Amino acid sequence: MKRIILHLDMDAFFASVEQMDNPQLKGKPVIVGGIGERGVVSTCSYEARKFGVHSAMPGFMARQKCPDAIFLPVRMKRYKEISNKIFRLLSQYTNKIEPLSIDEAFLDISEHGKNYLSVAHKIKKDILKKTGLTVSVGVSYNKFLAKLASDWNKPDGLKIITKDMVPDILMPLTIDRIYGIGKKSVQKLNAMGVYTIEDLSKWPIDFMKNFFGKQGEEIYNLIRGIDLREVEAEREAKSFGRETTFENDTYDIEEMLSYLKGFSVHVSYALRVRNLYAKTITVKIKTSRFATHTKSKTIDSPIDKSKDIYKEAEKLLKEINLNEKIRLIGLSVSNITDGYQEQMTFLK
Ligand SMILES: [Mg+2]
Questions:
Q1: CA 9 to ligand 1 centroid distance, Å
Q2: How far is the CA of 145 from the centre of ligand 1 (A)?
């Protein structure tokens, strides 16, 4: 492989930190976040996942699914401290690191050539030694496949996907595993008899463009294992965001706000892990009739804290005229600035 990309994803990060700091929690269903009436689950331990609990789930739902779970508050300072340790450690291997969140990153380690496997092993060992936590690592020649690989045998996984493995690995996968295909598209495709990547790979490119619009070509390439996106090292990213499609279209503003709250936390990590700030906040919704509405606001002083991001997002959502059910909600921040530079300009 000429290009070697790693995708690293700490296993149940917040919950694992809690279990490490308090060994009595080991082996128990631990849920971080989700406290209070409108709380949203940040992370849950593997023991809690067995009950169907997952991140971004409203706390009340998590309590219904797993009544014995131990709910803990988010101790961001502690997670950040460990995350910094991990990123410092990673920077000894390469400076081509793209943090995706507080506990997830792409690394381009092409510079290590044939030694990539021992590098991957060594990173896992280093992280365990320095933090006491496990990480799952995916290794491949592009981002899409590396990410697929890190998810392959979580927790504590290490999976390599080489070019010759691609057809065997990709073809049987269900289409919901493809980055960029939402739940509604999956349903539509299923109704047309398309369930797996193999089914979809029979479509000619024009067909793909017709069905998926401007994403058609990208998806056409992805399912053939082609993804030319580069690992964007720190500070190059132009925006950070999250979105989700509701299981059932909704009018419920409280439900939307609880998602925005969860997204604010994620977006805030993405900024803070890079020491970046944002000046523009955007809320996006898609209605059940597929109309997209976005509302943005640019503020004077850049922000990075989740509660500040949420405060703006909440105002923006309330400005949108909701007279239809909503199927998707998203939050992003852009107009990214480096906190340090910002201060320098201020001093001039
Ligand atoms: Mg993780």
A1: 5
A2: 17
Beta strands 41-44 and 30-33, pairing class = antiparallel
Domain topology for 166-222: DNA polymerase; domain 1 (1.10.150)
> What is the CATH architecture of 5-10+77-163?
2-Layer Sandwich (3.30)
Cα(319) to ligand 1 centroid in Å equals: 34
Instruction: Judge contact between 257 and 320, C-beta under 8 A.
Output: no
What's the average model confidence in pLDDT over 9-22? 97
CATH class of the domain whose range is 14-76: alpha beta
- Cα(143) to centroid of ligand 1, in Å? 16
Beta-sheet strands, E only, within 192-310: 239-250, 276-287, 292-303
pLDDT value at residue 340: 47
Residue 128 and residue 145 in contact, taking contact as beta carbons nearer than 8 Å: no
Please write the tens of the pLDDT for every residue from 171-213: 999 999 887 788 889 999 999 999 999 999 999 999 999 999 8
- Which residue in 79, 43, 38 sits closest to 61, CA to CA? 38
Q: Which two tokens stand for residue 341?
A: 């530079």
Least confident of 248-252, 259-263, 275-279: 275-279
Provide the pLDDT for residue 232.
85
Asked if the bond preceding 155 is cis, omega within 30° of 0, the reply is yes
Question: Which protein residues have a CB closer than 5 Å to ligand 1 (ion)?
Answer: 9-10, 13, 103
At 336 the pLDDT is 87
In the reported structure, the alpha carbon of residue 135 is separated from the centroid of ligand 1 by a whole-number distance in angstroms of: 8
Name every residue whose Cβ is closer than 8 Å to that of residue 207 and which is 6 or more positions away in sequence: none
Sorted by where each begins, the domain ranges of the chain are 5-10+77-163, 14-76, 166-222, 239-347
CA 342 to ligand 1 centroid distance, Å: 31
Beta strands in the chain (DSSP E): 5-10, 30-33, 41-44, 70-72, 97-101, 104-108, 135-140, 158-160, 239-250, 276-287, 292-303, 326-338
| Topology of the domain comprising 239-347 | Dna Ligase; domain 1 (3.30.1490)
Q: Which residues are catalytic?
A: 104
Going by C-alpha positions, the residue among 239, 255, 241, 266 that lies closest to residue 327 is 255
